[in-house]
């Protein structure tokens, strides 16, 4: 291949994939889990249990409310201690089910394999996916069944399975592709059956040649004609719009969704979870989490029951170093800094990165010197410096015209800016303002 | 036992570049030409650079102190302005002149607009334009020949062997400008001066080597294309400048000089001659690329360079000055907001 498949723009942060060669380990059962009833975009679930109830792994403890919502399940067996607001890694306190583990790890009787799952109708498969509480596992955490229900006017012809994992440090998807390629592909077959799409592309960055080889071999074993494509390693290669552009040349229209160009993107972890949901009838109660960074003594890839506190994982990784400064859920480019290590692992927790104090120190923002590095780096082809100036001057309508709402908050501009302008912060603030203003003006313009 | 945790918006990593790092990178890239200036024009050149730099930095600190702003002289940007301004004066100027120019550039060109990042025009060039307007004789009469060369760049030995009287105290561009006037109008000139200018132009076109290495008269930092290119390659390698502005600038100069600057009518010009003489190289690589005063968009940067090239050649060919780089960049600086606005790239997914 002459040209490497990639989008234009982007940045090359140091990869630091120190856990890439470490097999996934089971974490010892936590004494307690805290399961927030909202772990995805959309409406929160309603609690189905109260303090004193006993639960087993896979029991439903929160019921979905509305279409864009999924249920929650117990991830350990034991006794419900409380249903109360608890710290949430996305900020604030969220109604959560606190379960004290009895240490037995008993599984609910509803979890039972269905060997004939491929015989089920698309409707039934989709219902199982929803019942299993699936939400995208790459970070954005959109309810999976919603993505699997495109309107008939928008047929999907291309399914993209995202194994790019472009954030530095994270290796959960990489290990999953190495260790469970067959389960991932079985999940892909289910998605394909639900959507009826012809083309399937499994997208992997070229810094994971072992994953590419493993997936190619696994595909050959299934006899399917899936393409395992190698992409240039560059951040944010795993962002939906960038991945679609690089793989198919199609551009998702402004304000549109992948389905507008006949594409659907699912993370490899989600594909595996889809397989477990329909074939094993096992709800989403655990996930692979990379616990890593210079602030962690022994970085690891761990299979973790949802609701496990970050602190429990750190304890299992030799603890944090003396100079540990910042705890981030997700990768260092798009992840969310945490106030406390008491927050639980949720469905979208792809990794926990701990940086040292020196690395996390903020430098004072200066003024833009017009170096154009942010313009060259923006994968959405925006002019970030102009947008941030407009937002600072409260000219939100003009900022919107300049593409504020197209910003995917990838942080490439902030990564390269020598003036250390806090772009993502400004973009989020600007978007909030635009939505507020539009809501205020809504009745008139509508 | 809860420890204080640092919390901030993403991203949590950034690369190692900073404004001071970039500015001192530019200073470093100017060193070869600075050493060349001292070699060709003597210790006076060193004094000019020191005085201009000191004046630029002192006036920046003073303005910020008076306005009670944070004092940022250490970021290197005033130093860059000082050195570039020094590069833009002849070795024969009185030493107070670069000091006055630097203070003007920093105070009026930079801080009157709000300081680094807000100035619409390159402060060093504005300082130079101010000196040129106020003390034109000091700025345009070149009297110091470079070590081992002559003002016009033709080897002294050739000058005496060919007995070209036309070559007096002119720099190459000036000489060519006068020569073109004579050669284009043979009937108006007497035969001996016609022959003499014809010889001079021939010898001039044979002097590319001198122009390339810097053995030619001119402002102290602009003469050696070679030393300027060494620094420019470093800047390109570090990505502190891009290729778009310098190459579209130089390409335009080359094209227009080939088409219109010859002594034998259309398409008889020597592009290389125009590229190597005057301040084009200094302007294209170090002043037009000034981050603050150039566009940020891809097409904006290309158009900016083309505009600089066109204006430079218009001034060189039909203007009153033999040189036009300084004004071309200053004028194009003023178009930057417009250029940026009308060259916004197509957003991913946007239909045009
Ligand atoms: S955060 Fe937004 S503006 Fe910045 S590079 Fe990413 S998409 Fe572009
Ligand atoms: S990277 Fe920073 S300094 Fe450079 S143009 Fe963008 S905002 Fe300005």
How is the topology of this model organized?
The complex is a heterodimer of chains A (446) and B (352).
Chain A (H helix, E strand, L loop, with lengths): L24 E2 L5 E5 L9 E2 L6 E2 L4 E4 L8 E2 L4 E10 L5 E9 L20 H10 L12 H4 L10 E6 L8 H8 L1 H15 L3 E7 L3 H14 L4 E5 L8 H9 L14 E5 H12 L6 E7 L7 E6 L4 H7 L7 E6 L6 E3 L12 E6 H4 L12 H5 L6 H9 L3 H6 L10 H5 L6 H23 L1
Helix pairs in contact in A: 1-4, 3-5, 4-7, 11-14
Chain B lengths: L18 H23 L1 H24 L10 H11 L8 H12 L15 H12 L1 H5 L15 H7 L9 H12 L7 H15 L2 H6 L11 H13 L6 H17 L10 H6 L3 H8 L10 H21 L6 H18 L10
The structure holds iron/sulfur cluster (2 copies).
One iron/sulfur cluster binds next to helix 13 and helix 14 of chain A.
| Rg of chain A, nearest Å | 22 Å
The count of DSSP E runs of length 2 or more, i.e. the number of strands of chain A, is: 17
Quaternary state, please?
A: heterodimer
Class derived from helix and strand content of chain B: mainly alpha
Shape of chain A: globular
Determine the N-to-C terminus distance of chain B: 58 Å
| Low-confidence runs of chain A | none
Q: Structural class, judged by helices and strands of chain A? A: alpha/beta
Provide a compact summary of the structure.
Chain A is of the alpha/beta class and 446 residues long. Helix content of chain A is 29%, strand content 20%. The N and C termini of chain A lie far apart (50 Å).
Jot down its keywords.
heterodimer; A: 446 residues; four-stranded antiparallel β-sheet; 29% helix; B: 352 residues; mainly alpha; 60% helix; binds iron/sulfur cluster
